[in-house]
Structures are given as structure tokens and as C-alpha cells.
Sequence to fold (547 residues):
Amino acid sequence: MTLPAILLLSGIILLGAYLLYGKYVFEKFNINDKNQTPSHQYKDGVDYVPSKPIVVLGHHFASIAGAGPIVGPIIAVTFGWIPAIIWILVGGIFFGAVHDLGSMIASMRNQGKSIGTIIKNNIGYKGKQLFMIFSFSTLILVIAVFADIIAKTFINNPGVASASILFIGLAVVFGTVNKFVADKKSLFIIISIIGVALMYYFVYLGMQIPFALNYELWLYILLAYAFIASVTPVSLLLQPRDYLNSFLLYGLIIFATIGIFYANPEIKMDTQVNITSENLGYLFPVLFVTIACGAISGFHSLVASGTTSKQIDKEGDAKVVGFGGMLIESFLAIISVAAVIILSREEYASSLSLKGPVTMFSDGLGSMMATLGIPEQMAVSFVALTVSAFALTTLDTCTRLARFTLQEYFEGAENPVGKQLSGNRYLSTGIVVVLSILLIRSGGFTTLWPIFGSANQLLAALALLAIAVWLININVNATFVLIPMFFMFTVTLTSLGIFAWKNFQEEAYVLSIIAAILFVLSIILIILAKKSLEQKPPIPEIGNSFK
Fold:
């Protein structure tokens, strides 16, 4: 099979899944535009802001994508490109899309609150607090790691820093103008075209005016930006920046697809399936943990139930944003695999070791895009900049999500400190930023990062658990959620067990203990969920009832 044929077949499968399986899932969730969404019910102009579906899709897609659907699939090709593609398609359709949409709808039916609150309402208060501590700790780790990555990227490539600063300025102007445009569709289209054109121009301009600072300064600037992006109205900075940035990824996908069809490069990699890898371990569970965002990722549930659910204008918009957004990401993951299977197995192994996944992705797609007449160096730089731009999106979105998590944890607290943390977004964001700085300064984030893959997929399993219990409690057959849930628990518990034992043998006791704690946490939440189902009979959903 040729590379264009693989891409075409994958696209047809994903589109068909949206139209066919998507329809079944939409009916199971009883998505109804007559239901009032949290963005209208709790509209505050800061976090709850009803927005156009294309804008929310841009925010959501930019937030969940990042480098995840690029790095994970490329590393997973170690086990063979055929199992990688199969899991991307099967996982994206039956696991990831259901997980993302389910998290979004469950949140919208629970005042736009996070998975933690859904756990509290359906499993119990203890379950909520445990989940909140876990998700908050994970978000602080992600903020620290990405602040470090972006600061180093800006040092190594000052042009990316310049372009990123220009993007932020453009986003603020776009967000301000968009407020005055309101519901005038034609004017919105015009400012979108101008905004996207300027953004692509700023890619070029940024490279011409590199902006260089030292690591320490970039670190504090980035976290100051993350603070501002977390407390300002979502429609002023975060949402328009993500919306405009999403067109970088759309452009990347379009140019890459055309380039692959036009170049029709030979697939040099063999079809061998490796059950084990010396560096990674066994295909099960490593493949399913490594591909992550390309098929299913727990981080998506935090975004879907955190920022996105508060911006959905009508429930029907969640179809394309939640279910459709995941399938687009799966297609990007297929493109990532395509970018490296034009290499032989030996060339792939060597490049993965020496260059890393992002450079391999940039070089592979850049060479194919160059066949369209685009200078190869420019094409490679464009791909690399696109990936870097989305790292900044992950940073600011995670800061806002961590703020939501901290506020929800103390929601209903009667003591003065708890009330302040729950009600004051400036104080809660300040704590998030300070904790992130402390983790960076300690250097502990480099020690903890290896466990993120397993922790991320555990988040997915726990989100599916919360969605399943919620559905069962409101008399809905949750089999389509339970099957992915059981599989993801099997994957994550196996992965955590292996990870704990391996690090114990290597005397990396901190990682071993953390893995064991996460293993126990998941068991406790499963037991709490089982007890909650045994203790209370199914009840009809209040407000937005299912048929």
C-alpha cells in the first residue's frame, strides 16, 4: 500500500466514524440544542463565554494537540507502523472521541465544572478530593516542564520567540475587535481572514527579527504571561490566540496531505511488528501509553471539562468540537507516522536517537512539502515553528485548568483561606505559578516527568469511570464507555506496576513510590465507584433529562 493510499483510507475511516458511530454516541448522550449550556446560564465574561463553534474548536484543538500527536506516534513506530496506525484509528474513534465528548457533555450537564465535580456528584466527596489532588499535581508538572521546554526553545531559536510574541499581540487585537463584531458573520469571516494572514506573515517576520534573552528571564516572562492568560477574560487572549494558532495546524495538515499525495514517497520501513523494545519495553502496555494524544489522552478530559465546556454556545456544537476535534487529532497522528516510515528501520532508529521526534517530523514533512515548490528549509522551519507554537498553548491552558482545579477543590469551604482560594482567581492563579516556579527551581520536574505518560492515561481511565457512573445513574446504557474504561484501566495499571518494579530495581525509589501511590489511587476510586452504584438507585438527570 502506498503512503497516499494509507492517508486517504485513514481519512475516509475517520470521516465515516464521525458520521456513523458519532451519530450513535450523540444519541446516547441525548445532545439537544434546547438545553441551556453553562456558557449562557453562568455567563460572566471571564470563564463562561458563549462562543462560535469554529472559535471553540480552534481553542479546544489547539489545547489538546500540542506536540502530543506528533511525538507519541513517532516513538511508537518502534513497535511497527502497522500496530501504531491501527491503534490510532481504533483508539481515536472508540476511545478518545467518546472520552473527549463524554467529558465535555458530562461537564455541561454539571454547571460546566470539571471531572472532579462529576466524581463528587456521582461517586462521592472523597473521590473528588483524591482526583483533584492527582489532576492538580499533574498540571503543575506539565506547566513546569513546558515552561522549561519553551524557554530553551526560545534561546535556541530566537525567531520562534519573536513570532510567539507577535502572535500574542495579534490575539489581543483580534479578541478586542471580535467583541464589537458580535454575531455579524460576514465581518467575523473578514477579521478571521486578516488575522490568519497576519499570523502567517508573523511566522516570516519573527524569523527576521529574532528576540534573544537568557533562560531565567524567559522563564519568568513565560510564567507571568501564563498568569495573565489565566485571569483575563477567555475571549480576550486565550481563546483568540488558540483560534488563530489552530490555523497553523490546519495549514500544516493541508500542506502535508497535498505534499504526500504529490510526492508519493516510497515506504521504506518494513512491516515487522516488534513485541518488545530494549528501550521502551513490551508492546503492551507501552504502545497504548506512548501514542496517547493520537488515540486517547486523559489531559483531554481536563480541557474538555475545564475551559471548553464553559464556551460551548449550543449543545450541538460539542459534536464537532469534542468528537470531531479528537478525530482531527488522530488524522494528524497518522500524518506523523507517515513522516517517518519513508525511512528504513535503521535510518529511523538512528534519527530517533540523534534528532528526536519533532525534528524527524519537521524534516520528513518538510521534504514532502518542498515538492510543491516551497523552499525545503522554509517548509522545515514552518513545521518546527508550528509545533513550538502549540507548546505555549499547552502552558497557558494548563495554568487556567490548574486554577479551576484549585478553586473547585476548595469550593464550599467554610474557612477564610478556603473561601479566598475558591473565589479569588488572582490568588489561586498566583499559587499555581509559585508552585510551578518552585518545582522548576528544584529540578524535580526532570525526575518526575518519566511517569507522566502512565499518569496521563490513568486520568483518561478515571474520566471514563466518572462518565460511566454518571450515565448509569441516569439510566443510560454505558457499555460504549465501560469497554474503553476497562481497557484503559488494564493498560494503566499494568504500566504503573511495571514502572514501579523497574524503578525499584534501579533504586529510583521516588518514582517507584509515586507509581505505587497512583496504582492504589485508581483502585480506591474504582471501589468508591462500585459502592456508590450499590448504594443509590438510578435517578433521572435533573434539568437536561435523557429520553
Notes: The chain is about 75% helix and 0% strand. Strands lie at 276-277, 281-282. Residues 376-409 form the longest helix (34 residues). Residues 540-547 have pLDDT under 50 and may be disordered.
